[in-house]
Amino acid sequence: MDILISSIVAGLLIGMILALVSLGLTIIFGVMDIVNFAHGEFLMLGMYTTLFTAQATGIDPLLTLPLAALVGFALGVACYYGFIRFLLRGPMVAQLLGTFGLMLLLRNLALLLFGSEDRALHHGLLVGKSFELGMGVIIPATKLAAAGLSIVTFAAVWLLMNRTRIGKALTATSLNAQGARYMGIPTSRMNALAWGIGGGSVTLAGGLLVNFWSVNPFVGLLFTMIAFTIVALGGFGSVPGAFFAALVVGLITEIPGFWDFVTYTFDIGWMSDVPMTSFKYTWVYLAYFVIMVVRPRGLFGWKH
Amino acid sequence: METLKNAFDFSDFPRSDLVVAGVLALALAAFPFLSPSSFAMATMIQFFMFSIYGMGWNTIGGYGGQVDLGKAQYVGIGAYTTAVMLIRWDIPFWVSMPVGMCLSVMWSFIIGYPLFRLKGHYFAIATIATSLVLKDLFEVWDFVGAARGLEISPIKYHPPDFLRLIFRDDIYYYYIIFAFFLAGIVYINWFRKSRLGFQLRSIKDNEEVARSLGINVHWAKIKTYAIATAFVSVAGSFHACYIKNIEPEDTMSLDISILIALMAMLGGAGSLWGPIIGAGILIPLKSYLKEWLGARAGLVGIDLIIYALIIMVISAKEPRGIWGIVERVRRRKRRR
Amino acid sequence: MKILEVQHLVKEFGGLRANDDISFSLEKEELTGVIGPNGAGKTTLFNCIAGLHPVTSGRIFFDGRDITALKAHEVARLGLARTFQVYTAAGDLNVEENVMVGCFMRTASRTEARRRARRILAELNLEEHADALVSELPVAAQKQVTMATALGTAPKLLLLDEVAAGLNPSEIDQIMDTIRHLHHDLGITIVLIEHVMALVMNVCQRLVVLDYGKKIADGGPEDIADNPQVIKAYLGERYVAEHTGELS
Questions:
Q1: Which chain B residues are within 8 Å of A92, Cβ to Cβ?
Q2: Residue A67: which domain range?
Q3: C212 CB contacts (<8 Å, ≥6 apart)?
Q4: C52, C88, C100: residue with CB nearest B211
């Protein structure tokens, strides 16, 4: 029973963080129908930003988050003006491969500058602390804080998109770019803004993630794939959809925990022989494939 | 008979193309006698292999317009089938290669049926997902060596062994893969003019129009996907005998899938020569960049940075690829 | 002999009834026009008949067979072809090859497909364009290529979707000749959606009028032109009232 509850809690916590990871991807997709392969690399850069700033200045990693977000915003806007806008005219395959090129570029720049070793945060207000909820459920403080801040940011971006003038312009662009242009909305600036918000939110997620996840230049791809899955399950371009899909995916990554629960509760011998933890992310891909085939619009999708 | 005639009929290309292609083919045939370095030989063999992967991808991705980013899984199935059969039961390449092809094609039907219910980005990402699932499986499956992979040890055999494709000298591998490469060109030359080839181009443009012209769109895509798979699997089987040391990471990684699609796009997707041109540029570029910048200068990653910049420039500036430029120039000339 | 029979066809998109209880039937070798204001449900009707949309309720018979549940490619193989307003088969291919895509429905042989395509192009006087890309042609010729491609499937019934839209008067004459030729000389039953009244009134033997998804009239061109309901649909209630004195 303990395993079951702690798996669910852990799944939901990681799900909330993954929601913030995938938020940027779904906004960018919604506004300009482009899938960004370099998304995970933005996350990686956010992780490095927080890590190095915290280590260099000695301040708490949580205080470096605004800087991480700023770096991501600037990077996103720069990527849009420097590269992405040239891709928009091309066919889909060129867009996919183009952002894949961006991913390779960022990843290898990081490799060249930072080296390939794993780096982790060892100090900070929350690092190493944890809460015990009883029933054997232990929540690391870093994860809890990350999940909480993630929800706050997510909500803030959602409000920005839905309650402000500029957010409405952004939404209009995502619904119908041509129509928006005729209404006098500067769609190119909106695209850049989407990249800014997308980049900023994911580097922020990186800054949160690095509190309990070590970083190396290759960490991005896994999160890109997870974010793809979440965005597709939530319905491409749907912000609330991404949030709920992220919770689902968070739970899916805890399948090994559930597996252990069934194994020990019912004492099924053969189940304990399966190397379940190796499959942690396989389930995510498998779930993507199965859900897409059963529900091609995504779990909560309404657009497209 | 008609099929054979069409397969060898290149007459719709301008004569200048055929002259260039003929000269290049002769140069490739003579290449091993120009005393190239072993590095150059290895690069050329990679070029042939990736040309075959690219030609396969081009059927579904180029002519059919379905962005498939999961071709690496079939490299894996082909390579592993050949390696497992050779190591465990001493079954020669010429038997295991068709078996691997059948397994790949069967797997492609199984996942193709649901895959092609998806479109656009959903499809592209689903192909990545299936490929990664298979890779994860192979990484824990002891029968195929799990993450350690499999090693064909050449000491056990007596090279040159033409049945098992175990050679000490690369020149044998060179000519065998060259023959597969030429056969691939002939097949694609038939394919592009066949009923399926025409139907695919219609599907790429507009599926509703295609359906109204009596084309079973779903089935046409699945069939083509199987053809693409067969190409990739054959070269994958060859990969096992040539490299002799296969791991999930270097046969089935996403990078391989992307590289395959990228080559075809760089050369010009949806044309006979496109994937070959793309492989001819990217493969030497990649290996020499790595050799000169990465290994010698000690700057890890700088080769891939340059490589990434090239990808970015191409996809932004010339998404129709090199062959697209050639065709545009020609059309302009003709109209004048 | 009825070639097409539509019975109580209903097609809903969400809550919207695009086709509301439409029934009509066509005799073999008839040339019928489907007209109606924009948004009347004409293209939806075509898509339902051609099997591109599943129908909500009602039944469709083609050549004595119930085709209601068939998929588009199955319907096409039975001999029902349709053209689209903007698209030809494939932009990468030249005119002759586009027509071959249609011909490939009946044969797997490239030689045979090419022979048929050439014959059709000759029939429609398009031989001079055979090697051109469709996008390089004038609009009228593009429309003819879409018709030629559909003809490649050797249809018994041809649905033409706005083949005269965007053409100038002399091009419309040209298209009219082509339609008459297909109908008279090749004996193909034709249904066409059209906004160009000159064409409809000149070539059609019969007209079906749709408005807001409902069939409001069905008859010869002369009767339709005088039908007050049709005039109302096109010109509005007020116009009819003022000119017939019904509004007090």
A1: 67, 120-121, 124
A2: 2-219
A3: C20, C39, C40, C41
A4: C52
